[in-house]
Specification:
Layout: H1 3-11, H2 16-28, H3 37-64, H4 78-81, H5 86-110, H6 115-134, H7 148-169, H8 174-197, H9 199-204, H10 210-214, H11 216-241, H12 255-265, H13 273-298
Helix pairs in contact: 2-3, 2-7, 2-8, 2-13, 3-5, 3-6, 3-7, 5-6, 6-7, 7-8, 8-11, 8-13, 12-13
Length: 299
């Protein structure tokens, strides 16, 4: 395998559509106020960098702690395979973190923000980089203390959607918070499904996740509740906004009915892996459809 393919594999490009969801749907609700293509493109680049940093850090952190070994069910990691060393991965994380911070700052200084807004968004940018790294790296990574679900909800949901919307509109409205919570819930579902797949292995290696704490049966109930709450939040947010045409964007979420049926029927943890992309793509396609619908309606 070539060096480029090795790094692309480590970046786990299949996870990127989920990270795009918040930017797309946050932008779609801003079409009626003040959409700006420069903000949109910069936010997409920033979220890509954050996601790759997170994936690299996850690879490094689990390798250092010995979680990635021959017992792991999911796809083989880069360090685990021996294709990338721990030192190389650490350097890549540092370089990408610096680059991400530069992109964040150039966006913030390019648009007309007040001093307080500039400070707040700069702090949020640094917190996002910390969150991407601290999931598995450090003495007490929050991903090993069942806090991953909360952090994913906050950063993939609330910050991504509300933060993007605010950069356009300079305001926060309840309907966007509800939509942000819906996207965050879908991101939590992806993480929970991943943790359901790895539950037995994580239990042996003392990695506490919600799936480990809840157990197999309750983790499925939790998964079902999170997805149902997401759909209800979408419906509430769209209804409150009055932009009823965005209900058409929820069509991809119909796939979740079959997804839930398969999850409840699954006994072999390996069979959870193909379902990860079902939720991730449903979230992405819903956000993309809302974005396209917004373009059609407002432009």
């Amino acid at each position: 395998m070539s060096l480029l393919k090795t790094w692309l594999r480590a970046a786990r490009l299949r996870t990127l559509p989920l990270s795009f969801s918040g930017i797309l749907i946050g932008s779609s609700f801003a079409f009626s106020s003040n959409f700006d293509f420069d903000i949109f493109s910069s936010c997409l680049l920033i979220t890509v960098l954050f996601q790759i940093i997170s994936n690299f850090a996850n690879d490094l952190g689990d390798a250092v702690k010995g979680v990635d070994d021959e017992t792991r069910i999911g796809p083989e990691r880069a360090i685990q395979s021996g294709m990338i060393t721990k030192a190389q991965m650490k350097n890549a994380i540092i370089i990408l973190s610096v680059l991400a911070l530069i992109v964040v700052l150039q966006l913030l200084f390019r648009i007309d923000l007040s001093r307080n807004e500039l400070l707040i968004f700069s702090a949020l940018g640094m917190m996002s980089i910390w969150a991407a790294i601290a999931y598995t790296i450090g003495k007490n990574p929050y991903g090993y203390r069942a806090l991953g679900d909360l952090m994913v909800f906050l950063f993939f949901g609330l910050l991504a959607v509300v933060g993007t919307y605010y950069l356009y509109a300079r305001s926060v409205v309840l309907e966007v918070v509800l939509i942000a919570s819906a996207i965050g819930a879908l991101a939590v579902a992806v993480l929970n499904l991943n943790n359901m797949r790895d539950r037995e292995d994580d239990t042996l290696k003392n990695k506490k996740t919600m799936a480990v704490i809840l157990g197999a049966e309750k983790a499925k109930r939790y998964h079902t509740a999170v997805l149902l709450i997401s759909v209800l939040l979408f419906a509430a947010g769209i209804s409150l906004s009055g932009y009823y045409w965005y209900f058409l964007g929820l069509v991809p979420l119909l796939r979740l009915v079959g997804h839930l049926k398969r999850v409840w029927q699954t006994e072999n943890a390996r069979e959870f892996d193909p379902e990860l992309k079902v939720i991730a793509l449903s979230s992405f396609m819903t956000s993309l459809l809302c974005f396209i619908i917004g373009l059609i309606v407002y432009f």
